[in-house]
Write a structure and sequence with these properties.
alpha+beta; five-stranded mixed beta sheet; elongated
Length: 324
């Protein structure tokens, strides 16, 4: 972690203080071997479910096989994103590659939305043209799929705080739940001969895929558009800055997400005349407060002399002054 300041607060209103670090956001993540094993297991599962779905005339199994087929590019993209995100910053990517995982989650979510539309179509076609289902094959394949999907889910559970791996976690957890539903549906079909239950399960799986995908798509879009991190309020952060610095005003605040648990902030802080050493002490207090309370580890704070007229124009948000 390092700091650098240019000048002191007696100069024009462009003095700049900047600091960044990555402490406090390290979490255990699945290794590349785990991700490679998950890709292989997903390919095996797709082959088994497609074979069983065709042999057993089960649209539910075929839908689940198509659903699991999306795991392969999803897991591959997630694995590549994990590797790329570890690359250091350079002259072109000055923030590094932290957003690669978010971009991967965004792409995966779009793929899943398209897949859900296909599952709805296939279920509707089977409602229109019902076919008898081989219950025994449905039961065996659903149990095998449940074991594989549960294993993948447990393998990535440690990294579910990461949006990219959370997409994989939710996806495979949903797969495991759909396997349980297919197994239960097969038992009901055996007992009641209700063949319509098979396409109904296929449609339900499609709805589950769509629901989980939209949530991931919304969160990834929020991060890519540099929205305020979830759970943070701009006004409370502004109050914390003023409380830590004793400054008269803070404005032009921007807070965004660089990567998993890595938040950045930039703002303008109006302070009275003081020497450079005092500026550095004030900066350290603000940084410590932001890191402790909000886990903001990358800060860019521009000091301005209090009372100086500001240039005309828009400020986002409006200047925030202490109460009382």
């Amino acid at each position: 972690m390092h700091d650098h300041s240019s000048g002191h607060a007696h100069g024009p209103a462009h003095n700049h203080s900047h600091s960044h670090g990555h402490a406090g956001h390290a979490h255990p993540m699945p290794g590349s071997g785990v991700m490679a094993g998950a890709v292989a297991a997903s390919l095996l599962l797709v082959a088994v479910e497609l074979t069983g779905g065709v042999m057993g005339h089960s649209i539910a199994l075929i839908s689940d096989a198509v659903h699991n087929l999306t795991d392969v590019p999803s897991l591959a993209i997630a694995w590549i994103a994990m590797r790329v995100a570890e690359r250091p910053a350079n002259d072109e990517k000055t923030f590094g590659y932290h957003r690669v995982g978010t971009l991967a989650a965004f792409i995966n979510a779009i793929i899943l939305v398209l897949i859900s539309g296909f599952l709805f179509y296939e279920a509707w076609e089977r409602f229109r043209n019902p076919q008898p289902v081989h219950v025994g094959i449905m039961m065996v394949i659903s149990v095998v799929a449940l074991v594989i999907n549960s294993g993948i889910t447990l393998a990535v559970v440690r990294g579910r705080h990461d949006l990219n791996l959370r997409a994989i976690f939710i996806h495979n957890l949903g797969d495991a739940l759909s396997n349980i539903a297919i197994l239960g549906g097969a038992l009901i079909i055996r007992a009641t001969a209700a063949q319509w239950l098979d396409p109904l399960l296929g449609a339900a799986i499609g709805a589950m895929v769509l629901w989980s995908s939209i949530g991931i798509l919304r969160e990834a879009s929020h991060i890519l558009l540099e929205g305020l991190p979830r759970g943070m309020e701009l006004e409370t952060v502004a109050k914390a800055i003023l409380a830590a610095s004793g400054a008269q005003e803070v404005h032009d605040i921007h807070i965004w997400t660089l990567g998993t648990d890595l938040y950045a902030l930039s703002c303008h802080l109006s302070i009275p005349d003081m020497h450079l050493e005092q500026c550095e002490q004030l900066l350290q207090k603000v940084r410590a407060r932001l890191a402790d309370e909000y886990k903001i580890s990358h800060t860019t704070i521009q000091f301005e002399r209090a009372g100086l007229p500001r240039e005309a124009g828009f400020f986002m948000p409006e200047p925030f002054k202490p109460q009382g």
